[in-house]
């Protein structure tokens, strides 16, 4: 678990690599979809508007965009954790 999580003062704290993993997990959890459910929704669509609404849920993006989003989210989490650490010092 080196580089992912640390035990500090009886609390588990994510390290920078762990924060990147967490950001990636959150991103994929938010944007993933169930292929079977999607197929059923496409079949049940009654017109082009229904179909567009169903397909709008799927967010196909490039690998580079994915990396950028995950990196941004990880940086936000790292900054938040740093801010919390500073507050705990007081």
Number of domains: 1
Q: In order across it, which strands form the biggest sheet?
A: 1-2
**Amount of helix:** 55-70%
Which strand-content bin applies to the residues?
5-15%
Notes on the structure:
68% of the residues lie in helices and 9% in strands. By secondary structure, it is mainly α. It has one domain. It is elongated. 3% of the residues are buried. The model has no long low-confidence stretch (mean pLDDT 76).
Summarize the structure.
The protein is mainly alpha-helical and 90 residues long. 68% of the residues lie in helices and 9% in strands. A hairpin with a 2-residue loop joins β1 (5-8) and β2.
Keywords:
two-stranded antiparallel sheet, 2 strands, 68% helix, 9% strand, elongated
Helices, strands, pairings?
Layout: E1 5-8, E2 11-14, H1 16-31, H2 35-44, H3 48-55, H4 63-89
Antiparallel strand pairs: 1-2
Helix pairs in contact: 1-4
